[in-house]
Amino acid sequence: MDNIFVPNQRIVILQGLEKDPGRSLSNEMLQRLLRTYGHNISVSEVNTQINWLEQRGYVHADRLSEYGLVIVKILRPGIDVALGQTRAEGIDPPLED
Q: Where is pLDDT greater, at 95 or 54?
């Protein structure tokens, strides 16, 4: 992995999803969330992280292809990582509140 910030981006995404009342956010909202933590990345880069998390069973993504919108919902394993109950390779430990 070339970008040392990627593991931090992944925990920000998981924690943002876990804290959302519906445990679901769009890729555009996740991009805004990441920006508040100093990660100024494109929606395409957000989608790359969503895909990575989905392949490992931490989130489920619904892709509305005609609009480029992706709706992401956190799954139980992702909640466990977000809360620090499980450690995961490639994802930073949870951020402190």
A: 54
Is residue 53 classed exposed, middle or buried when 0-12, 13-18 and 19+ CB atoms within 10 A define those classes?
Answer: buried
Q: Which two tokens stand for residue 39?
A: 């990660």
> Could you give the domains of the chain?
6-82 (1.10.10.10)
Q: What is the pLDDT of residue 2?
A: 62
Report long-range pairs for 26-32 (Cβ below 8 Å, ≥24 apart).
Answer: 26/69, 26/70, 26/71, 26/72, 27/69, 27/70, 27/72, 28/69, 30/72
